[in-house]
Design brief:
It is a single chain. By secondary structure, this protein is α/β, with parallel strands linked by helices. The chain is about 50% helix and about 15% strand. The chain folds into three domains: about 35 residues; about 200 residues, D-Maltodextrin-Binding Protein, domain 2, CATH 3.40.190; about 100 residues, D-Maltodextrin-Binding Protein, domain 2, CATH 3.40.190.10. It contains 16 helices and twelve strands. The strands form three sheets. The protein has a five-stranded mixed beta sheet with strand order 2-1-3-11-4. Strands 8-7-9-6-10 form a five-stranded mixed beta sheet, with helices on both faces. Strand 7, helix 6 and strand 8 form a beta-alpha-beta unit. Helix 2 packs across helix 11, helix 2 crosses helix 12 and helix 8 packs across helix 13. The radius of gyration is 24 Å and the shape is globular. About 5% of the residues have low confidence.
Length: about 325
Amino acid sequence: MELSIKIKAILIIVVILGVSFGIFGVFYVLNLSRGISVGALSGDLHHLPLFIALEKDFHEEEGLDLDFEDILWFQNGNEEMGAFETRSLDVGYLGLAPAMAHKLNQLAPIKIVSGVNVNGSAIVVKSSSGINNISDLVGKNIGVPSLNNMQDFVLQIALANQNISITDINRTVLSVGNMENMLNTDEVDGFIAWEPFNAKAVDNIGAQILAESGEIWFNHPCCVIASSMNYLNTNPGDIKKIINAHIRALEYLSEPSNHDEVISISKKYTGITKNSTIELALSNIGYVYNYTEFMPQIETFYDNLTNLNSNIDSWSAGKKAFMEEFFDDTFISA
């Protein structure tokens, strides 16, 4: 009888282990079949290097199975960060502002592995508005994508340079896709957005660029490539392939002989039909991968983000520790 009980116990253990292994095997196979998920912002010309890499099959040539159908398109960076936080996104092209804010507030499980661009935003007004300089913005209603994000900080810097307080204007949070129409119907007096939405307003409704963001804050950080920490730890080779494809796209973008094709690719991914709109937008964007060259600007943004937002706390271990936790330059320096 005692032996029988032992045998039964052993059989139960074997069954439990077998079932557990079976479930693990199913999840393992599902994980293998899922492939990499990559996010980007819809119609955002800052993400042109991704568009080029997809069109020229640079990912495939680097040994990574990734094409247009694999990209998850988001309306804004906060939405994309939500996907990272629900573990449904592996890699993403997005703005530094939402990435940093979510890292500080929600301990988002990401690291920044590459830069994408600097500059690339602008303050836009109607040509007939009578607004000819930054000082003329006093008392006006200005559309911003979000309060205290990168574009809003650029606006604040522009005002501060003229000894104007942010409280001297009214800010309205708008989707960048709605800003042109709101300006055209006089529901706002101006707006600040990323490209190509500024260039579109110039070409479509005859708006005027009051100031480009790079003129206000030279080489300010903007978009980056982020990776989930889980994917980074388990698939570092894939991250390297993505960065290699990104760098190849930047090289392709900078080659004058590729200019016409770059314009065509830009039009395809943004839905813009006019070459002049693309040309104007591209003239305002600096494409990069080595974000370490712009660390002073990135640290300035960290200071602004944590000092001006009562709902975003500084990293408990300090700014230096945060930068070490938030960034990983392994793949751009290897």
